Structures are given as structure tokens and as C-alpha cells.
Amino acid sequence: MWWLLSILGCVLLVVVIFFLTTRQRYKLFSEKCLRPPAPLVTDSKQRDDRLKKGFHLDRVPPALDAVVIGSGVGGLTAAALLAKAGKKVLVLEQHDQAGGCTHTFQNKGFEFDVGIHYLGQLHENSLLRITLDQITEGQLQFTRLGQQFDTLILGQGDQRREYHIHSGKTEMAESLKKQFPGEEGAIDEFMRLMKLASKRTPLIAILKMIPYWLVNFLVNNGLLHRISQVFSLATTNHSEMMSRLTQNKDLQALSAYLFYGVPPKESSFLINALLLHHYKRGAYYPRGGASEIAFHIISVIQQAGGAVLVRAPVQRVLLNQQGKAYGVTVRKGQEEIEVHAPVVISNAGIFNTLQTFLPQQVQDKPEIQSLLGRVRHGMGSFLVFVGLDGTKEELGIVSTNFWMYKDNDLDSLMERYSSLSRDQVLGNIPMMFITSPSAKDPTANIRQPGKSCMTLLTMARYEWFEEWEGTKLGKRGQDYLDLKNSMAQEMLDWALTIFPQLRDKVVMVDAATPLTNVHYLGAPRGEMYGAEHNLERFSPETVARTRPQTPIDGLYITGQDVFCNGLAGAVHGGLLCASAVLNQILYIDLLALKTHLKRKQTKNKMT
User: Fold this and answer.
1) In whole angstroms, what is the distance from residue 230 CA to residue 244 CA?
2) pLDDT digits over 429-487, tens only?
3) Rounded CA gap, 506 and 385, in Å?
């Protein structure tokens, strides 16, 4: 094994030396770029000027270095990193405000987030925190939630069991051991594997940076799995791994309670372990709401001469006679306007990028069909937005999230649910997530005094709503409204069994189906997490192939489909993408800054 590690280490050293010595190097990261946080901007005109600036040809900066399709976190991260390298970048967003899943919306005086419910790995000097500080110049602030950040509820009625998940290096395991007496050994081993997954995941990312021939050599000769156990964790389904550790069905369910549309037996143990480990050092929420993320990243893009423009639906990627990307077209009324740039980055997902935006003859190329054949669409989501009359103190709601399942056999539960026809859905929603953004953000009562909000979420098949595909928002007919409202009421009634005190405090209810996600997020089949996170997604071959570079010269992909789901996954997708565009491994520079900051922190503690 040691000689294998030595070979890989030498290859990586050669790659690093090559990048460090033969390419132009950009200095992106510095402590000096950080500024004291400015006061929260609450003026709607100021916010709209940054988040809702509409597309006009005269607003397109001249001599662009890159154009980015989509203003989700992956797109904004890649754009901001390029901006810090002195590049002029234009980000184009089809929706009427920037931010993707980080955008918020107002309804009857209530503010709701749509995709950022809580975040992890934001403790001091973590890689994610340093990255976000760098691309916002230290302006993005977070509030830490209580130590008990999640509650898992299994079963119904008299059979209902509650389990509490705590953050903390040792507290997470200690809390679980108290709740599962006799399972101490299984919990210790699960925690060990979680830690290993977190520490060795960079090896997974390296597969996206090294040449394909080297990946193939390591896979075909059986060497990859001997280098690190992380590759076995990535290709082992979660149910199989947990059945080796414990026969306790509730503990097995708890190990995979963070749902994203894939049953445990079809998902990678690695991704489930990473999701739970993500919150081990604490759960956080953006101070000022989720839209603060885009608000502050956009400023960095603008400082370099770039822009973020909304109501700019990209129609296609422009290709020259040699097949190289040189820009995009944007629909403006009845015409298509060309925007030229030598680099095109898509944050619109792998399917939109390689299907919707490319001509058929290019889509049909074997290398593109081979890549698309490795992934499939993720499951859609269904959200219910609930407006409540009263403050969090008056209503007795807390920052803790609730994850609810009607049964502890998550494989059977999810399989049954996803196999339902549309007519069978009502009365059979088996799982739900409950979150209260206004209970997490200390500025919520200042911005919306006397009001609170709650969001309910479950997964939903696109096929249940496919009949209304192509219809316009707000004009989908009574049958669509009946299905949407009935699902929303079923979820609200279930939530009120946990919060009965809220029954008379509900003043508004709205819902979003997979078709809503198609409209606002541009998701082809209403998916929130991009390509499905099944076991195949984490095979070494698929990991290596789903890299930022595409078979089209000059066309790159960023975001969740490059790395994995969630804000952290999208940020890493942006880091990998910017690294590819700049021909510079930005992680090296980030790790150097992290080392410097940790040494400084240690020195300050000693003085």
C-alpha cells in the first residue's frame, strides 16, 4: 500500500509543480481583502439594485473574460473567484432575482427562503468559512444555532420516537450513545467512518483534476481502493454499510435521515456520512437571511468590472466552426442577443448545459452521450410556505429543525412513495422536513416585526405534475391547484401535530411543486439538488468524468453537478471550475491561507 501512496504522491507532486512553475499564477486570496462587516442593508431599492438588475445590452460590460449561465452559488462562486483574479465576468440569470436556491421571496409581508435552511462547516478557519470570507470580503455573517440542531421523529401516534442530534466534536457521539444504549460500538465506528470520509474526501476531488488515463489506470488495476478506504465508502451503498454496524432500525434510519430523494440502499455511504459530519462542528444560518449570500458575492464580481443581470434567459451556447464556445445568446422579447466571451461557464446543470444549450448534432457526439449516460435527473421537491402571526417567543418555535418519517425502514418507505401514481399521493406523504427561518435569524423580527414563518419540505416526483408541463405560472388550472393545495394541507396538518399551538396562528399558506422549480430555478424536472446522488454518481469513473471541463472547448460546468449537493457542494464546484479556467489549483492557495490563519490564531491564544 505504501508504494501505491508513494506513486500517487509523486504524480500529484509533478502535477502541482507543473501548475506552480509553468503557468501564470494569480494571487486570489489574502487576509487583507477582509473588511469589518458593514451594517445590514434593509433598503429594498439598494438590495434590488444589486439582486434584481435587469438585462439590457448597454449593461453588458465590454471585453468580457467569461460569461456565467445561472446565478446560483456555484455560478457566483466561480465568477467571484475569476473576478479576484482580475477577470471581467458577466453572470446571466433567467429568474427576476439573483441567487438561485439562495434567493428569498416576499408573500403577504412574510419572507421565505427556498433552499438555504441551515449550513455547517462554518467554524473559525474552516475551509468553507475561509472561502466564503474571501468571495464576500468578510461581509457575510452567520448565526450559530443551538447545540441540538435537529430532531428526528420516527413513527406515528403511540409509536412515535424522538431522537435529538447535537453538534460538538464529542457531544454528537455522546448524545447518540445516551439515546441508543447498547449501541456504543456501532456509534463509535460510525463516527470513525464519518471522520475518515471527511478527511479523505479531497482524494475524491483529486479524481476531477488528474488525467483520465491515470484514473483509468488506478481503477483498472484495482489500485484505487488500496490507496484509501474512502473509495470503498463512496461505492458502498449506505444500507449495506450500516447493516454491518448495527441491526437497530432506528439507528440505521438516523444515519441517513437527511433526505435528498435517494433511498439509503441506492445511495453512497460517503455522501450520507459527509452530510451528517457537515454539522458536527455546529449548524449556522446567514444573518439577514439567505439572500445575503448572493448580495455580498455580487459586490466582488462588480468591483472587477463584471455584472450580474437577471431576466436574461440563455437560449444557446455559441460555437465557432472549430466547435469552440465563444459566448451565448439571450432572449430579449422576440429577439436573441449575442453575448461574446472566450470562456462560457454553466451553472444550469449538466442536462441543460449539454442538451438544452447545444445544437442536436453536438449533443449526439459519443463523448457527450457517454457523459450524460452516467447521470440521471434528481427527484423533485415540494415545499409549503407558512406565514404565522406572532414572534418566535410568542409562538414557541425554535431554531431546531424537525425531520419526520412515518416508518424507520427508509428504503421501503421511499420506494413505496416514489412508486405512487399521482392519484395515490394524497394521504401517503411519508416524510417531511420542518424549518423555521425566522427562528434562526436574529434580524428577522427587525425586518418583519411580529411575524414568523415556517417551511415544510418533502420530495416529489416530476411525473405527478407532468400533465401541466409547459403551462404558465398561475395559469395551470383547478386540478393542479387542488393537488397542490391538498398536499400542502396534508403536510401542514402533520406539522401541527408537533406544533399544535400554531393552529390558530396560521395566516397564509403557499406551496411550490417541481413545476415551480422549473420556472424559478430552471431545473429541467424540478430537481433542487441537480443530478441524482445515487451510487453510480460516486463511482470513480463518474466522479472523474463529471469535472468542470466539458467535451466542448471553452465550455465549463460549475455547481452541484461538479461536486455534490448543497451550498458547500456548489461552492466546491465553483472552486474546481475556477481552478480549471485559470489553470491553477486554487485549493493549494486556500490551504496556505488556512495554515497561516491557524498559526496566527494559535499565536494569539498564547499571548
Assistant:
1) 17
2) 999 999 999 999 999 999 999 999 999 999 999 999 999 999 999 899 999 999 999 99
3) 11
Give Cβ neighbours of residue 181 (< 8 Å, ≥ 6 apart). none
C-alpha 575/C-alpha 79 separation (Å) is 10
Which among 328, 374, 322 has a CA at the least distance from the CA of 347? 328
287: cell is 444573518
Helix (H) or strand (E) holding 589: helix 586-606
Contact 463, 380 (CB under 8 A): no
What is the rounded CA–CA span in Å between residue 115 and residue 383? Answer: 10
Query: Considering only CA atoms, which of 459, 577, 475 is closest in space to residue 525?
Result: 459
The runs of H, that is alpha helices, within 85-237 are 127-136, 171-179, 184-206, 212-220, 224-227, 230-234
**Strand 344-346 to 555-557 pairing:** parallel
What SS3 state is found at 489? helix
Q: Is 168 left (phi over 0), alpha (psi -120 to 50) or beta?
A: left
Q: How far apart are CA 403 and CA 149, in angstroms?
A: 11
DSSP code of residue 465: G
Q: Which amino acid is at 586?
A: L
Could you tell me if 370 and 361 are in contact, meaning their C-beta atoms sit under 8 angstroms apart? no
C-alpha cell at 4: 501505491
Q: What is the pLDDT of residues 100-114, one digit of tens each?
A: 999 999 999 999 999
Which DSSP category does 341 fall into? Answer: -
Transcribe 385-439 into DSSP letters.
Answer: EEEEES-HHHHT--S-EEEEES-S-HHHHHHHHHT--HHHHTT---EEEEE-HHH
Q: Look at strands 307-309 and 89-92 and give their pairing.
A: parallel
d(CA 343, CA 299): 21
Q: Mean of the pLDDT values across residues 71-87?
A: 98
Cα atoms found within 13 Å of the Cα of residue 163, Cβ hemisphere only = 26
What is the C-alpha separation between 226 and 230, in angstroms, rounded?
10
Q: Which of 346, 365, 400, 409 is nearest to 93 (CA)?
A: 346
Rounded distance between C-alpha atoms, residue 416 and residue 411, angstroms:
9
The pairing of strands 142-144 and 110-113 is unpaired
Among candidates 93, 68, 101, 72, which has minimal Cα distance to 82?
68
Checking if the pLDDT of 602 tops 90, the result is no
Q: How far, in Å, CA of 393 to CA of 187, rounded?
A: 35
C-alpha cell at 181: 444504549
Cβ pair 254, 408 in contact under 8 A: no
Radius of gyration over every alpha carbon of the chain, rounded to an integer in angstroms = 24
Q: What is the pTM of this model?
A: 0.95
Bridge partners (DSSP) listed for residue 252: none
Query: What are the tens digits of pLDDT across the range 371-385?
Result: 999 999 999 999 999
At residue 17, the pLDDT reads 46
Helix (H, G, I), strand (E, B) or coil at 39: coil
The amino acid present at 126, given as its one-letter code, is S
Above 50 in pLDDT, residue 319? yes
Q: Cβ(116)–Cβ(567) under 8 Å? A: yes
User: Cell triple for residue 574?
Assistant: 465553483
Comparing CA positions, the residue from 600, 603, 606 lying closest to residue 125 is 600
Mean pLDDT for the chain?
Answer: 94
On whether the CB atoms of residues 153 and 402 are closer than 8 A, the answer is yes
Say yes or no to pLDDT of 268 above 70: yes
pLDDT of residue 11: 55
Q: Number of C-alpha atoms within 13 angstroms, CB side, residue 563?
A: 25
